[in-house]
Every structure is written in C-alpha cells, then in structure tokens.
Amino acid sequence: MIKSIEHHFTIKTSNLVRNTCNAFLLCGLQEFHHDITFKKGEISMLSSNPAVFKYWYNHRLPAIKTDENGRNLKAGIYLGSFIKKIDEISKKTLPLFQSQFCANQSLHILEHDKDCQHLYSLSFNQHDTHVFIQWVINNINDVHNFIEYYKSSCKKLIFESKKLKNRIQLPLANYHQNELLIANLVESPPEIMHAETQKSIYLSHQQNICLSLLFKGLTAKQIADKMALSFRTVQHYLERIRKTLGCKTTKELILKYSGQFN
Prior knowledge:
This protein is of the alpha+beta class. The protein has 12 helices and 10 strands. The chain folds into 2 domains: 5-173, Beta-Lactamase, CATH 3.30.450.80; 178-260, Winged helix-like DNA-binding domain superfamily/Winged helix DNA-binding domain (Arc Repressor Mutant, subunit A), CATH 1.10.10. The chain has helices at 14-23, 50-58, 80-86, 88-101, 129-153, 155-161, 173-176, 179-186, 205-215, 220-227, 231-245, 250-257; strands spanning 29-37, 42-47, 66-67, 70-71, 76-79, 105-112, 117-124, 168-169, 192-193, 200-201. The strands form 3 sheets. A 6-stranded antiparallel beta sheet has the order 5-6-7-1-2-8. A two-stranded antiparallel sheet has the order 3-4. The longest helix is centred in the middle third of the chain and has 25 residues, at 129-153. The protein starts with 13 loop residues before the first helix and ends in a 5-residue tail after the last helix.
C-alpha cells in the first residue's frame, strides 16, 4: 500500500539534512540526497530538498538500477553521466530531473548494507564536465569525509527511515521498461484539445498515463496493476478525466479523444 507523501516521514527530514549540508559545504554543492533501497521496490529517501522526493514519487519512477533484490550496482563511486549511459530509465529521467532542479552534474556513492543499499547523491551546478571531473579527482577525500559526517550527524534519522512504516513502494526498473509504461515518458501529449471548446486541457502526469493505457485497451483493473496503484485510485483518475473533458462515460471518452494519442 502506497503511503501518502503529504505526511510521509521522509518529507519531514529535509531541514535536518539541509542543515547537515550547510555545516560541511562542498564546492558548488546544490542538493544532497540519500536513498536506501530494499527488496521489491521498497525505498526510503532522505533529501535536502523535499521537492526531489515528491518529483520521484509523483512520476512513479523506479530507483536507478534496481531489480527484485534492490539496487544491483556494485559498491563504488559513480558519475551521473555514467549512470545515464548504463541505465535506460535514467537516459530519459535524468535530463528532465536536472532541468527541474538545475543540477548540471552529479556524483553518487553506493554502499551495500546487510539488507539494503545506500546511495548518496550529490548534485552540483557545474556546466563544464571536464572541470567537474577534475574537481572530483582532487576532492574525493572531502566527499567521503562529508558522507561520514552526514552518517554520524543523522544516525538516528537514518535508522528511523529504514523502518518499514517509513518506506514507500516504487516500481522496479524491469517493470517500468514495459512498452506500455514507457509511453508515460515519450508518448503522452503535453496537452489535449477539448472536443467542445477547442481549448488546450492539461492533465496531470498520472492522468496522462491512465488515459494512455486506457486508449491501448486496458481496463481500469489492468491499469491499476500496471501502475502499482489501487483500483479505487485509478477509478478516481478516470472520473476526474471524464469530468475535465466533458464526458459522461468511458466509452464517450475513448470515442472523442483516443485519436489525440499515438
């Protein structure tokens, strides 16, 4: 069952994490994120910016390089540009994510724990990749010191975030690569023309996914399974869509608007 992010534990951690970052400033550090991945898409996310967590949750994105057992990368240091090359989802999501949060470069440190994996992500506003790589080479010890300082300062917070009640459920990467779900990133139109008023109507990202899958012939129950949502949530999305587009039934919705989707 997906918890509501409005009252979710991880949203409330941003101040402490942000203060930790401020106490140990790195050159150009813009955002700091720590996600803890478990089996079957369970994840806890701590961030200096709560909008990052909301973005990841609302767009129903899987954690980078994950499978049934959690994150499948080896422990080590990774540049954001490298992760984008090896992860199909990241090729689409990272540029969009960077444009939303003005992060031009990122550095990631992965550590494996007994039952989970820790990914510490540092985002920098640096346009020149070569300059950034040189900075990483010269300052990697400072980065490690910062991570150790963060783990020490936020020890209780990290322990609390690992509890089952504070995890959320995200799709697995192999689930998200289903051709029907990739449509939510590349096929859904940014706007729909209202059949009666001929005005542009903008649906939410989740509503666009529902509509795209509906037009591909899926039932509400099948859409719920594909999106890892409850049947009731999907029914609510479709009801709001029908009301917004002036349709009384799902059949009318399909007849009037399916032609606007590829």
